[in-house]
Specification:
Oligomer: single chain
Number of helices: 10
CATH topology of the largest domain: Dihydrodipicolinate Reductase, domain 2
Shape: globular
Keywords: Oxidoreductase
Family: Belongs to the Gfo/Idh/MocA family.
InterPro entries: Gfo/Idh/MocA-like_OxRdtase_N, Gfo/Idh/MocA_domain, NAD(P)-bd_dom_sf
CATH class of the largest domain: Alpha Beta
Protein name: Putative dehydrogenase
Strand order of the largest sheet: 8-9-10-7-11-12-13-14
Order of helices and strands: EHEHEHEHEHEHEHHEEEEEEEHH
Distance between the termini: 47 Å
Number of domains: 2
Structural class: alpha/beta
CATH architecture of the largest domain: 2-Layer Sandwich
Organism: Vibrio diazotrophicus
Helix content: 25-40%
Length: 324
């Protein structure tokens, strides 16, 4: 399967390595508009073809899958172009920065009947699958509260037009909270939520830190927090009526060995280890390659689907609107 990467950012290099590790994938092409970084990327990852024009890459008939690694506000434009070119698409998260652009992108995918997935790579990893399996089993009883936080000092590296912490980092805890709540609620119930939020803005005018509370269907509370100008710290816990699950390993950057703690209130606590063959990017490449080989237009839950991507974007945009 011949992959092509649009953009030469740090994440493009991570994906190039993941493509190299999949024995049925190859990095066929890369496109970049900055000659120095394009040359450095090509030297490090050795694609077959190098473009300085994004459109030319997408029109190359040899390309099977296009990975869009541009800033968030450009995603919709290139999803549309790739769909029109008939390419399978992996678009880096977040899908967009507003619902109008989100729907334009997804409408193009649907119209041209091409494969599409958003780059919430952790959803393809066995760690995520195991967490959701435990929750669905009822081992902690009825889910009552989800507590999620992700902070990282990335503000100096991101494009201001990407619109800040909610879309650069908040998409991770929000999407995992969505999957978690979906273990006991229907999608309709999940989308019936009340939301309140506070936050602060950074020097670029974007929200750089925010905390929000969501109440799903008057049944589950979500306490969510993100910030992009300090730390590297993850936190994710699910409290049920008889116990709780705490993710000890970073759920959004799982590796080959991951752990979680399963606690039965006041009686027992144990650590569960989930081994894997690689990191989340490795599993993302494999999942997408297999889906495209099989003629599918999307992945299946708990992997990122177009429906999940749109729902999470709605939650993120509502979160942004609620911040005061």
């Amino acid at each position: 399967m011949k992959w092509a990467i649009i953009g030469t950012s740090f994440i493009s290099g991570v994906m190039a390595e993941a493509i190299r590790k999949d024995d049925k994938s190859t990095l066929y092409a890369v496109a970049g508009r900055t000659p120095t970084t394009l040359e450095e990327f090509a030297k490090a990852h050795k694609p077959t073809v190098i473009y300085n024009d994004y459109d030319a890459l997408m029109l190359d008939p040899e390309v099977d899958i296009v990975y869009i690694a541009l800033p968030n506000h450009l995603h919709h434009e290139f999803v549309i172009k790739a769909a029109r070119a008939g390419k399978a698409i992996l678009c880096e998260k977040s899908l967009s920065v507003d619902m109008e652009k989100t729907d334009q992108a997804l409408d193009a995918v649907k119209e041209h009947q091409v494969f599409f997935a958003e780059g919430l790579m952790y959803q393809c990893h066995p760690y995520t699958a195991k967490v959701l399996e435990l929750l669905a089993s009822g081992v902690i009883g009825e889910i009552k509260v989800i507590q999620a936080s992700y902070v990282a000092a990335i503000a100096q590296f991101v494009n201001p037009s990407s619109k800040g912490a909610l879309y650069n980092l908040g998409c991770y805890p929000m999407s995992l909270a969505y999957l978690t709540a979906l273990q006991s609620l229907s999608r309709d119930q999940l989308l019936d939520y009340q939301l309140s939020a506070v936050g602060r803005k950074g020097e670029d005018g974007n929200i750089c830190e925010s905390s929000a509370t969501l109440r799903f269907a008057d049944k589950i509370n979500l306490q969510i927090h993100t910030a992009e100008d300090y730390g590297l710290k993850h936190g994710f816990s699910v409290l049920g009526t008889i116990g709780c699950i705490t993710l000890d390993s970073n759920p959004w950057l799982p590796s080959e060995r991951n752990t979680l703690t399963l606690e039965q209130y006041e009686t027992s606590s144990k650590t569960i280890t989930i081994d894997a063959d690689g990191d989340a990017f490795y599993y993302q490449v494999r999942a997408i390659r297999e889906a495209v080989e099989n003629g599918y237009n999307s992945l299946r839950l708990p992997k990122p689907t177009p429906v999940l991507s749109r729902d999470v974007m709605q939650m993120l945009t509502d979160w942004e609107a609620a911040v005061h």
